[in-house]
Amino acid sequence: MTHYNIYNFLNVMSNIKGLFPSTFITDANNYSDLNISIDKTIIHSLLKQEATEIMPGIYVLKGGSKILAQFKILGITIAILATFHGEQIALQFSPSFYQLSRIILKMPIASLFPLEHFVKLITQILLLKKKYSFIIAAGLMTKSHQSILLSSFGGIGKTTTCLKLFDSAADYSLLGDDTLITDGQKIWSYPKNFRLRKLGNVFFSLEKNISPEQQFPGKKIGGVAWPKYLFLLEKGPANTVQPITAAQASVKFLAIQNKILNLYAERIILASSHQNLLDLPLLMERQKQIVEQLVTQTHNFIVQARQAHDFNRLITNQLINL
Predict the structure, then answer these.
(1) CA 126, CA 12: separation in Å to the nearest integer?
(2) Do 131 and 125 form a contact (C-beta atoms < 8 A)?
(3) Integer Cα distance of 84 and 106 in angstroms
(4) Around Cβ 246, how many Cβ atoms within 10 Å?
(5) pTM of the model
(6) How far is CA 291 from the centre of its chain?
(7) Which helix (H) or strand (E) holds 199?
(8) pLDDT tier at 28 (50, 70, 90 boundaries)?
(9) Rounded distance, CA 322 to CA 317, Å?
(10) Share in percent of the chain as helix, strand, coil (round to 5)
(11) Strand locations in 201-279, DSSP E?
């Protein structure tokens, strides 16, 4: 088991490598908020326990605190077991799910999402319980510990732009290329590994995982920053940078968060709410409040670019002029 301490917010134990940034690896801890493991025995859970099927392939096991997703693909049984115990959550994945979801296919299988994203949603639940939240944004930190946040829907260019800005500026620290943590008042880095696609498409791909330290040797990685700038990226007919109000930024930024961090879209999580194991309305409202508070702390801009490579120049010029 590998142990992770995420800023003393969360303690995690996992026997699956690469689910969390290596910077959080720590010594063994007797307590964990989240325990993740591969367990071949969970595919027998339906045989051993009474179960109620509340959605196709989603079962509540006897006692009500365990939610099982299980069905077959090409004759192979796929399973995830989520156990809720007070403020702690345990996730067990069948080896078949791990092989299909992480190594072979990059598409929804056992519940609705691939392994990494499913774990991310569960981690988000635990963060929200402690009044922190993931945000979907790439981020840099200046020498004065101020953050430069870039956010967009997937495939627009936030990660590529962030890494170009980072590579070209000696005095920036990289907070993360896709995901960060905030309480609405500060930004904590979340420097997970980069997934470099070598071959394939959105459904099937060969990928290489590499740490930020390996990709950028000698550069500054990580840190805690104050909110300063938020750039929301879009592609459009002209290259423009327009300031927007906190209210306007909140609407757009929340839409991006809800696309990626929509807890209602995941069936095991929804089943947990159905069983009163999670208060999803409270958690989603908390996520909204944290985002709304964050954008009152930042200078907010819409950046439209004809081509993705134009974002770097537009944001650099804007930062020079501020």
Answers:
(1) 11
(2) no
(3) 27
(4) 17
(5) 0.92
(6) 15
(7) strand 194-200
(8) confident
(9) 9
(10) 35, 35, 30
(11) 205-210, 220-221, 224-235, 240-244
Give the range among 17-26, 200-209, 226-235 with minimum mean pLDDT: 200-209
The 8-class DSSP code of residue 101 comes to I
On whether the CB atoms of residues 230 and 300 are closer than 8 A, the answer is: yes
**Nearest one of 233, 225, 223 to 297, comparing CA atoms:** 225
Determine the residue type at 240. T
Instruction: State the CB neighbour count (10 A cutoff) for residue 4.
Output: 21
Per-residue DSSP letters for 278-306? S-HHHHHHHHHHHHHHHHTTSEEEEEEES
- Beta-bridged to residue 302, according to DSSP, are 232, 242
What is the residue extent of each domain of the chain? 2-132, 134-321
Phi and psi, residue 51, nearest 5°: -145, 150
- Report DSSP state, residue 204: B
What pLDDT is recorded for position 197?
Answer: 53
Given the candidates 3.20.100, 2.170.270, 3.40.50, 3.30.160, the CATH classification of the domain at 134-321 is 3.40.50
Nearest to 68 by CA among 110, 105, 29, 33: 110
Per-residue pLDDT, averaged over 266-291, amounts to 96
For residues 26 and 23, give the distance between their C-alpha atoms in angstroms, rounded to a whole number: 8
Burial class (CB in 10 A: 0-12, 13-18, 19+), 217: exposed
Task: Write the CB contacts of 218 (distance below 8 Å, at least 6 apart in sequence).
Answer: none
pLDDT for the residue numbered 268? 94
> What burial class does residue 319 get, using C-beta atoms within 10 Å of its C-beta: 0-12 exposed, 13-18 middle, 19+ buried?
middle
Contact 105, 204 (CB under 8 A): yes
